[in-house]
Amino acid sequence: MNDDIVRQVLNFRQSRNWEQFHNPKDLAISLSIEASELLENFQWKTSEEALDLKKENIADELADVLIYSIYLADALDLNIEDVVLNKLAKNERKYPVDKAFGRKDKYTDL
Amino acid sequence: MNDDIVRQVLNFRQSRNWEQFHNPKDLAISLSIEASELLENFQWKTSEEALDLKKENIADELADVLIYSIYLADALDLNIEDVVLNKLAKNERKYPVDKAFGRKDKYTDL
Amino acid sequence: MNDDIVRQVLNFRQSRNWEQFHNPKDLAISLSIEASELLENFQWKTSEEALDLKKENIADELADVLIYSIYLADALDLNIEDVVLNKLAKNERKYPVDKAFGRKDKYTDL
Amino acid sequence: MNDDIVRQVLNFRQSRNWEQFHNPKDLAISLSIEASELLENFQWKTSEEALDLKKENIADELADVLIYSIYLADALDLNIEDVVLNKLAKNERKYPVDKAFGRKDKYTDL
């Protein structure tokens, strides 16, 4: 996440004196709740219907997921981009292109 | 999210020919599942115990949440940073500093 | 839930001296985690594929959801069957048959 | 679940002609969403605060979890009580009392 975006998200919380309410466990709960609210836009619908009718709401919930991700990374003293790069490196090893190409099997079945 | 990170995540998928398996509804399901796996690190533990024992795993699951967020934004043809900025603007209006300072009430109760 | 089933589930926990670890918030977290593990069986699959390949696992996760529901009801000092009957009564009022027949609209749109 | 409760839940759906909208994958999604709505009552709160302020809402969401569990069991052609009993039997073998008494370790660590 661009440093400026991260700073804006953290400033938003700080200017309202809300850090006092944030702790890692409740941040993890919040992240899970927002992901569920995002999923709710697809309930009883096909992907097409959901994108047709609920795109703005999906975008808002995705934003909430990203905002809580920023708070969690901050609580863990981690940099968002390092977190992603480290996992991509692990995934490269678990799913080498020559074995994983075009296959949706879990790495233990490659 | 830094454009380079987004590109690396999308390239990872493309070089393995995996886009064929991705559709918005299943991406939303996946995002929810990863958020739940992140939360599982805090099950039966305090925030402190979880950060002490499970920090690497929490970071990995946070990465998975962010990676699926990138795929979803791509599926919706949205830019991650615009998505966050739009929501911050909405939140600014719902939670003006003078009313929301130090209060965890929902905006309907401000 | 049949009283005998409830009693067996509570006895299972008691004979292992596990009540000490249970508190309502972590029980709610656990219920959410198990529901997510159940959903994971449908990830990237159609309903038919999931039932074909993963029926036993779905049944096991459904059992975990029900077991945690029993622990939560116990923590709230509620009877499982009263809980369901009360909600059915509320749903009857929100979705009268003459208005709701064949319609999947939310009650606010009836 | 008492046969009568199951029948009342299935009748509620049938009299509104709603089975047409239910398929196992969307039922699994719905179950996950309801579990998350239940968990939301504990967000930013201790167990005590949540039970103090939100007990009725928690009971309603627990009912929704149980109702969707009944629909899922029906979709899988399974009996709710058999599902729970089978899992309890598996858990008995994974967590024998003499090894698991008073310990919250996962069975692989017993």
TrEMBL record, chains A, B, C, D:
<dbReference type="GO" id="GO:0009143">
    <property type="term" value="P:nucleoside triphosphate catabolic process"/>
</dbReference>
<dbReference type="GO" id="GO:0047429">
    <property type="term" value="F:nucleoside triphosphate diphosphatase activity"/>
</dbReference>
<dbReference type="InterPro" id="IPR025984">
    <property type="entry name" value="DCTPP"/>
</dbReference>
<protein>
    <submittedName>
        <fullName>Nucleotide pyrophosphohydrolase</fullName>
    </submittedName>
</protein>
<dbReference type="Pfam" id="PF12643">
    <property type="entry name" value="MazG-like"/>
</dbReference>
<keyword id="KW-0378">Hydrolase</keyword>
<dbReference type="InterPro" id="IPR052555">
    <property type="entry name" value="dCTP_Pyrophosphatase"/>
</dbReference>
